[in-house]
Every structure is written in structure tokens, then in C-alpha cells.
Amino acid sequence: MQNTKKLLSISNLKKYFPVAKSSFFQKEQLYVRANEDISLDIYEGETIGVVGESGCGKSTLGRVLLQLYAQTAGNTMYYGATLDEITPRYVADTLQHLDKYRARLTKAGEKAAELDRQVSAVGEDKADFYLLQERNLARCEEQTCLNAIVKILGGFYAKDEGGKGRELLQKVFDENVKRNKLKTRYQDSRGKYDYCIQQGMDESKAKVGGLKKTLEELREKMEACDRSVAACQQELDALRVANDGDAEFVRYEAMRDSGIDLARLKYSEMRLLRKDLQIIFQDPYSSLNPRLTIGQIIEEGLVTHKFYKHGSPKMREHIVETMKKCGLQEYMLHRYPHQFSGGQRQRVAIARALAVGPKFIVCDECVSALDVSIQSQIINLLQELKEKENLTYMFISHDLSVVRYISDRICVMYLGNIVELGDAKTVFEDPRHPYTVALMSSIPTTDPEALSKERILLEGNIPSPIKPPTGCKFHTRCYMACDKCKRVPPELKEVEPGHFLACHFPERKIDREGNYMFELPKMERKSNRFARKEDAAD
Ligand SMILES: Nc1ncnc2c1ncn2[C@@H]1O[C@H](COP(=O)(O)OP(=O)(O)OP(=O)(O)O)[C@@H](O)[C@H]1O
């Protein structure tokens, strides 16, 4: 891995969709568990491929990352912008209501400790299910409060004599809010000033002169804010150095997180980040508005995110330039989507995403609906743009050969969980999870040697995500499943550097020659969970 700077960090992410009750008397609320306990870091400049059978939650993951779906639980931290740029309300809330948060934290901690005592009195094995549940909930509450406070306060949570650290952090926040408001006014006035100059007015005109004066005043005010923030930061740094020897301070300081917690942003705050986080959909036919021309489609995002004012000649230039980058000609600007081929439409969808200068793009099956020859063109275009524009992709696809070609790392999902994660080469050449082995085995090949080898066919349907199997969710279709798999859910663990696996049997399953290093038990073959090639042909 070349780049190790995180762009997104997801921890314990969950997304449940509620299922409508089938009768008035149904008490239990059921959920489709589309994503469960997903932890994943995405690094700047990489392409992470997401594979898995239909319905395993790939698209949901992509959309939850972009906050198009609200997540049910977990954290999604974004590092592509700073807290100072966005100044989210949740930071101000935490600083203002710190005492309330601390009280909640202490209460949850005390409750968890008391329940812990009760559990240990009877023994973990014999403890009542509800008692254990209550204890776990109290621990979760404690962790949530701790996360919320410490991520913002850092070491000052542990040691902040006289509340000096908190006061300084509050001042930095307030100054940044002020600065951001001034910046918006500055950009507006700058736009008006530029327009007047373009129209041939000079500074002797009262309107232009007035605008120039306003711009200077605003610039001075912004600089004053910057100076004030820098002074506060200096004081904070001095306090941090003074507390450097304190073990508790250092421990909490390490938990400080400069990322933006996307799930805690308000709608208007998330809109500021939308331009950074874009998506390209699978179907280029339905993802473009048929009533708008290509120019209008690309313009929409630019106007919404206040890049340009409607009708600005500079915007036209920008649109044409973006279209050219995506292999579209200028004369296509006034055409409607129905006048394009599938591949060209997908280029328009790419141009629409690219125009706003994104950092992260979710490509959700973006080549699946296209002809094979066009697929390669679009994939090469995406690769080219990634290098030129320094983009990061999440590439969701069923097509393993496409994923192999484009991805740096691959994440294999099964029924809402990540079961294997690693470098593309490692996952393809040394798959460890039985599900990944079966997926790899399903890739069509023309290699005569590979054709003569045994193939594993994944039989049966994916179980219901509403009531998934207990323990390891794959155990109902796994040839290696034992009693433990039925009871204990495996954790995603690092089996070798950068290679993560959620299986109780992490041993190597394929040798260097590509042969499977296991015997398929006869009993399993009869039950048709995994069938060899000859069986399937029968
Ligand atoms: N908006 C929604 N409301 C309710 N359930 C949903 C919604 N979106 C997805 N689901 C459910 O979540 C589960 C995961 O769906 P998702 O679309 O993420 O799967 P996928 O792996 O992307 O599948 P495919 O590859 O076929 O697109 C499915 O069981 C689906 O029915």
C-alpha cells in the first residue's frame, strides 16, 4: 500500500431497514440487517473493490458511507476536510454541554460497574440473559459518551485545570464559525466584483469601488480571525506540552480525532461535504434526468454547491473541460440523454460526479449495464481520472475479473458482514475464507489447465437478512462448518499484514499451483451444499 493516509474510517457500522409489520398483533419489530458491524479504513488514492452475492449489502454500504441512508449505529469518520472548515454543531454542543455529557458518562459507568458486580457474583456463564444484555447496553452507552467527548477534547478530558483547554477549544470553534461566515460573504462579493469587471466597469464607478472596499474589509476581518485561532492553537499546544508527562493525558490525547463524524452532521453541514463524496450509479439510463440537456445535468451540481452562478460563462468553460476529460465533445452539450449510447451516458454520469471536484466516488456497479467492449473503455477512463484527479474509489461489482483489474484492495461481503479484506493480489491468489474460495472458483476461465481443476459451486440461496443464521452467517453453506461456527460469530482478524479474515479456520486453502487444499467430505457432496463440477453436470 503506497498511501497510508486515511480518507474514511468506518467502525462498527450498522444499517437496519425496518420491515413493515404483517399484522396488528405482531409485537416484534423486524429489521433487514443490510450491514452489520462493519469496520473498514479507506485510504487516499486507493480503489477498494467490494464483492459479494446479490443482496449482501454492498450498495447499502456505499450509500451509508455517503450518508444517503442514515446509519443505524457506528462511526463514519471523514478526513478529507477539517473540522475547522465545517465547524459542525455537534462540536459546539459537546463543548457547551460538557457537564451534562460527563454526568451521563459517570452514570453509565457506575451502572455498568454495578451490573458487572452482579454478573461476576453469579458467574458469566450462569448470568441471566437480560442482566448480560443490560450490562452490555450500559457499557455501550459509556463508550458512546466517552467517544463523543474524548474525540473532541483529547487529553483535556482527563486533565484540564480551571477549564482552560475547553475554553480555548471553544474560542477556536467560535472564531472558525465567524471566519466561515465571512468567507461566504467574501466569495459572494468577489463574484459580484468579477462580474462588474467582466462587464467593462472600472473601479472609478461607485458600485465597483464599494465592492472593492467591502472585499478589503472582509479580508482584514478574516485575517484577524486567523490570527486569533493561531494564538489559541499556540496556547493549546503549550498546554499539551506541559501535560506530556501525564500518562492519562497522553492516553486520551491519542484518542483525539480530527476527522468529521459524518453521522452526527446536520443536513446543511452534510451538504457542504456532498461535493467531496459522489456516486456513479449502475444504470446510466435511469440515473440521468431525461428532461435536461447534458450541460444542464452537469451544471446542476455546480450551481447547487455555489461553484458558479447560473448562466456564468466561466461555468460553461468548466463544463466543457470536464466533458472533454470524460471523452465527450463540446457539441454534445445541448443534447438530451436519449440521444446517447449507454457508454456515452455513463461518461455523462462520470462527468456529473467529477465536475464538483470530488475526493471519494462510490462506483456502484457502474459498468454492469454496459456492453463488454464499452466496459473496458469506462474502466480505463476511471483509472485515468483517478490518477489525474487524485480520486479514491469504492468499486462495487459482481464481476470479479473487473474488480481484480481495477482494485488495490478487495473487501468480500457476505450477508451484511465483511468476511475477508486484503490486497487484490492476496485475496485472489490466497483466498482464506471458504466463501471467497467459492467466489474465486466461480470466475469463468479459458485457461485449459484451470478448466481441468475441480470447481466449487456455491449452492443454495443466501439466507434471509431478517433472521440471519446464528454464529458464522456462512455456516449453512460452508463445507468446513463445525459446531463452533454455528454458535460463535467469528471476528474480523488480521491473519497476516493487511489481510483480514472472519473465519474460525484461517489456514491456507489454496496451494501455489491453485489446487484446493481440502477434501470435500462425501456427506456434504450428497447434501449438495458444495457440488463438484461433475456433480453439477449430472
Ligand atoms: N431502501 C431499502 N429498504 C429496505 N430494504 C432495503 C433497502 N435497500 C436495500 N435493502 C435490503 O438490504 C439488503 C442489501 O441490499 P443491497 O442493495 O445493499 O445489496 P447488494 O449487495 O448491493 O445487492 P446487488 O448486488 O444486487 O445490488 C437486501 O436484503 C435488500 O432487500
From TrEMBL:
Residues 8-440 form the ABC transporter domain. Pfam families: ABC_tran (PF00005), oligo_HPY (PF08352). The keyword Coiled coil applies. InterPro entries: AAA+_ATPase (IPR003593), ABC_transp_ATP-bind (IPR050319), ABC_transporter-like_ATP-bd (IPR003439), ABC_transporter-like_CS (IPR017871), Oligopep_ABC_C (IPR013563), P-loop_NTPase (IPR027417). It comes from the Bacteria. Keywords: ATP-binding, Coiled coil, Nucleotide-binding, Transport. Residues 201-235 form a coiled coil. One of its GO terms (biological process) is transmembrane transport. GO terms for molecular function: ATP binding; ATP hydrolysis activity. The keyword Chloroplast does not apply. This is Oligopeptide transport ATP-binding protein OppF.
